[in-house]
Write a structure and sequence with these properties.
The complex is a heterodimer of chains A (about 300) and B (about 260).
Chain A: E1 11-13, E2 29-33, H1 37-62, E3 66-67, E4 80-85, E5 93-98, E6 101-104, E7 110-113, E8 119-122, H2 136-163, H3 166-171, H4 175-179, H5 181-189, H6 204-227, H7 230-235, H8 238-243, H9 246-273, H10 276-284, E9 287-291, H11 294-297
Antiparallel strand pairs in A: 1-2, 2-9, 3-4, 4-5, 5-6, 7-8
Chain B: H1 3-21, H2 26-30, H3 32-39, H4 41-51, H5 82-89, E1 97-101, E2 107-109, H6 111-116, E3 119-127, E4 133-142, H7 143-150, E5 158-166, E6 175-181, H8 182-185, E7 191-196, E8 199-200, E9 210-212, E10 225-231, H9 244-247
Parallel strand pairs in B: 1-10
Antiparallel strand pairs in B: 1-2, 3-4, 4-7, 5-6, 5-10, 7-8, 7-9
């Protein structure tokens, strides 16, 4: 089996996973080199950056927990706002208003409890923000430092990805893959994951999701962030045209942040259901085990 | 270092990492070294911003149609200061703007003197550090014209604005102040505004004079300006960080 030409020369070892016997029923496993060291290191630095950027971003949002569209803030008609209100009788409530629709979000949005258990008028609760206490100045310090780290880390990743052909080789879906997108989606929904040769590469849904995040969400996160900077608006006024104004950019920044959270939730879920240790190992040591289907092994 | 100390230090650092991982970064956030490291990004931001587009980029200007129906007033809305209130009662005829510090000629200017200078009118967006924006129309004397009258000396690197309002009535040292670099001070859109939306500047917005620094956030645009001081360093003023909010932990460079 070790001499199987189909396995390719990136097979690291098969010995540890050798089956007791061909008829033993345990599928063959090959460890292949899946992620380059650049991808692995930048992946984890990116996780750290995005976590801190999200939490410090919510801290900054809390300084004025309302969103608008256009260049200016129409204070009477925000697209979204979080407030604490005092009803005529009863305790204060946290109210989130989205396009004029009011939702009672007491305990989480608009009104939550501080460390001492006291009700606290606040957009997002203390456990979600960095720092936990109300500190716009502190939130900005964390946000802009890790924004720089995010940019430098992302630049290394992009540069390496283009120079080594990683994006074209591993992320650009082939015509064949695109044609079978319906079938792949069905497999995905039924948690049928590819084995053998097909498991060596990302499936078409993975490729599209990663491309959207890498070349869509993340760069637009950076650009909408820069659009909020008055000095950047002076240097690159096109930013304001691109996003329809500073307040629109702030709103898009907020929506993209939560889109990234949604991506991470799906991403982590898929990591869990498609072999958590194998996936984690591949993003730490680079090595990924491939199971050959029984047919191929025999 | 005795081994116990090393152990304790290791314990402390792993506790710090644990705190970070748990998301409760408050203890870490209050650490002075952490604060210094985080704040080091400010200089990088300032330099890169200056590099992109250069020093002379203009803030976008808008039209009358873009004006905010309600321009939010923030910070001090009516200075609780007897001297100020007496001047306000007489429509600031007794008010004088002093220009002092590293200048060849000290100046004392009335509102009339400022209004007699060639004015600049601009409709610009005001971005508060809190996140909101309003668009207003400002008319005022160009700061560089005033500074040229005074004649800055070679060592002048910063322009400090001393204001009439106390941020904390119980603390006489809490008077608002701000500072900008000499380059920003000579920017054509940096003006000493006496009119807002075609009317004399209201008290809530800083009457009789507020500075407009259009490429930075609202807290740089000091209201109730009484004295302009040219200095080579602001380390000796208040807590030494170049402004009231800077002394509370906000960045001196407020271009983002």
């Amino acid at each position: 089996m070790e001499g199987n030409p189909d396995v390719g020369n990136d097979t690291v070892t098969t010995r540890a996973d050798r089956p007791a016997g061909l008829a033993g029923g345990r599928p063959l496993r090959h460890l292949i080199q899946r992620h380059s060291v650049v991808v692995r290191v930048t992946h984890w630095i990116n996780l750290l950056c995005l976590t801190i950027l999200l939490m410090s971003g919510l801290q900054i949002f809390n300084a004025h927990p309302a969103l608008y569209w256009g260049n200016i803030s129409d204070f009477a008609h925000p697209a979204l706002s979080m407030d604490a209100v005092q009803p005529q009788n009863g305790p204060p409530r946290g109210i989130t208003t989205v396009f004029g629709h009011r939702f009672d979000t007491t305990g989480v949005l608009g009104l939550s409890r501080d460390a001492a258990g006291q009700p606290w008028e606040r957009g997002f609760p203390a456990w979600a923000t960095l720092p936990g206490e109300q500190s716009l100045a502190g939130g900005r310090l964390w946000h802009f430092f890790f924004a720089w780290l995010f940019v430098l880390n992302g630049s290394v990743y992009l540069l390496a990805g283009f120079l080594r052909g990683h994006f074209v080789r591993d992320l650009l879906p082939g015509r064949e893959q695109l044609r079978h997108i319906g079938r792949t989606t069905l497999d995905h929904l039924l948690f049928r994951f590819p084995k053998g040769e097909a498991a060596r590469r990302y499936n078409v849904l993975q490729k599209l999701a990663y491309l959207v995040v890498i070349f869509g969400f993340l760069p637009f996160m950076l650009l909408t962030g820069l659009t909020m900077s008055p000095r950047m608006d002076a240097a690159w006024p096109q930013l304001l045209i691109l996003f329809g104004g500073r307040q629109s950019a702030r709103t898009i920044h907020f929506i993209l942040a939560w889109s990234l959270v949604a991506f991470v939730l799906v991403h982590v879920f898929m990591v869990l259901v498609s072999g958590v240790w194998n996936n984690l190992r591949s993003m730490v040591t680079g090595r990924y085990a491939i199971e050959e289907s029984r047919d191929a092994a025999e | 270092m005795p081994p116990n100390d090393i152990k304790r230090r290791k314990l402390l650092s792993s506790a710090a990492i644990g705190t970070l991982l748990l998301g409760g970064c408050d203890r870490l956030a209050e650490n002075d070294t952490v604060q210094r490291v985080l704040a080091s990004a400010e200089g990088l931001t300032r330099r890169v911003h200056r590099l992109l587009g250069g020093a002379h980029t203009l803030a976008p200007e808008y039209t009358e149609a873009d004006l905010s129906p309600v321009f939010k007033a923030n910070g001090t809305l009516d200075p609780d200061d007897d001297g100020y209130q007496a001047m306000a009662a007489k429509h600031f005829v007794d008010w004088r703007l002093e220009v002092t510090g590293l200048v060849e000629r000290k100046l004392r200017m009335s509102l009339e003197d400022l209004r007699a200078m060639p004015p600049r009118t601009q409709i610009t967006r005001h971005d508060c550090v809190e996140g909101w924006s309003c668009i207003g129309k400002w008319k005022g004397a160009v700061l560089s014209d005033v500074l040229r009258q005074a004649g800055p000396l070679a060592g002048a690197r910063f322009v400090v604005f001393h204001c009439a309002d106390l941020m904390d009535n119980a603390d006489p040292d809490s008077r608002y102040y701000e500072s900008i670099g000499i380059e920003e001070a000579f920017h054509p859109q940096t003006i000493l505004a006496y009119d807002m939306n075609d009317a004399p500047l209201p008290v809530a917005h800083g009457a009789p004079l507020r500075v407009r620094v259009e490429r930075q956030l609202g807290y740089k645009m000091a209201k109730y300006v009484m004295r302009i001081e040219l200095v080579d360093s602001f380390a000796h003023i208040a807590n030494g960080n170049g402004g009231y909010w800077e002394d509370q932990g906000y960045a001196w460079y407020a271009g983002i």
